[in-house]
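Internal ticket - ligand job 422, iron/sulfur cluster:
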Amino acid sequence: MAVHIMDEASRCLQCKKPRCREGCPINTNIPEMIRLFREDQMMAAAQMLFANNPLSVVCSLVCDHEKQCEGHCVRGIKESPVHISAIENYISDSCFERLKHDQQPKNGMKVAVIGSGPAGITIALVLALRGYSITVFETRDKIGGILRYGIPDFRLPHSVIDRYYEKMKSLGILFRPNFAVGGSVSIQDLLNDGYKSVFIGTGAWRPRRLNIPGETFGNVQYAINYLNNPDVYDLGEKVAIIGSGNAAMDVARTAIRQGAKEVTVYVRGSSVSASPDEYEYAKLDGVQFELNQTAIEIKDEGPVICDTRKNEDGKTELLKDTARLVQANSVIIAVSQVPQDKLVNRDKELHLNEKGNLETNERGETTMEGVFASGDVVTGARTVVSAVRYSKEIANDMEDYMRAKAGLPPIDRSAEASSDKA
Ligand code: SF4
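stdout (C-alpha cells):
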C-alpha cells in the first residue's frame, strides 16, 4: 500500500497553477500536501489538511473525486490522474490520532450545536479549538448523522466516525445523545440558559415523495430510511429502485450485500445523476440500469414503469402508453430528502423557504437572532464537502456575532484568507 501511495505521489508534477486545487470544493492545497508527503513530512501534511478541512479523512473516502480534484488533475489529460484521494486518505487516516491541536483556552462562551452530521462536527471542532464550550445535541445514540445513517459502512466505515467522537471528547466537547431539541426543549430554552449562539445542522431526513399512487404500501421504502438500518428490512430477491443519485447507488449496493438477487435502478433521464465512480461500482456489483424510465404507480406486485423522453422544451415527458407492471418484491424510492420541520414548529421565529429548507441570510444566520445554520438543512441534500466548506464560514460568522455581543473586537481574518489562496 505504502509503495503504491508513494508511486502515486511521485507522479505529481507540482503544477504552478494546480488545476486539482481549483477542482476541490474546499480548496485543499493538494500540491503542498504531496510535496510534504514526498519530503517525509507526513505529519505536517496532515496538520495542514485538518486545518483546512477537519473532515479530511471522511472527504478522502466519500467525495466525488472524479468530478473534483482528480477530474481536474493535469495528468488526467493524457493518462490517469494522480490518485489524490488515496494519498489524502493515507495521510489523514494514519495521522488523525497524532494530530497536535493548538486549542485556545476556554473563553467562557457556550455554543449549542444541534445535529452531529458533517456540518455539526465541523462547527463543533472549529469553535472548540477557538476556546468555545460546545455541547452537541443529537437525536440518536451515536454521532455522525448522514455519515453514519445515510452512507453505507462499506463506503465510509463507522469506525471513522467513532474516531471523530473520541477526538471531539478529547477537545472537551460535551454530548447529549438521544435528545431532540424541538421536543421538550426549544432553541429559546437554550438561549435562555446562556448559550451565546446556537447552530442548527440537523440535515435533511424527510424523504422527498414521488407523489404517485401506492407510495404508502408495505413493499415500498424510502432510501434514507433503508440506509438508516438495512438489517431490519426484508426486501426479497427482486428490488426496483426509483432514482439515480448517489443515495440510489448506496441503496442498490447495500441491497445486493443484504442478499437481493436482482436489483434494477430506473433512471428518469438518459444518464444517471450519481457520480461516475459510484455508478461504475454499482455496475460492478451487478446492479442493472434502465434509462429513460420511471414509475407512475406502485402496486403490490411491483412498480408500474413507463418510458420517458425529452420534449422540445427539454422537459421530461412520460409516454403513458408504454406503462407496464414490473414484478419486484420491493420498491425503493431514492429521489432526495428535505429537512424535517420539527424545530420550526417548536420555535416559530424560524422560517423555512419555499423549498422547505431553513431560511438563512448570507452569514448563515436564521430568522431567529443568534441562531445559525448550514449543511443540508439549509441547502437540501448536498455533498459532505459542501457542508464542511459552508460550515467553516458559518463558524466565523458565529464567532463574529458572539464577540460583537460580548463587546470584543472582531477577529482579523485577512491572513487566513490570503493563506487560503496561497
Ligand atoms: Fe499534481 Fe495533478 Fe495537482 Fe498538477 S494537477 S499539482 S499533477 S495533482
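Auto-summary: The pocket of iron/sulfur cluster is lined by residues 12-15, 18-20, 30-31, 73-75, 82, 84 (CB under 6 Å). The domain at 3-98 is CATH 1.10.1060.10 (Fumarate Reductase Iron-sulfur Protein; Chain B, domain 2).
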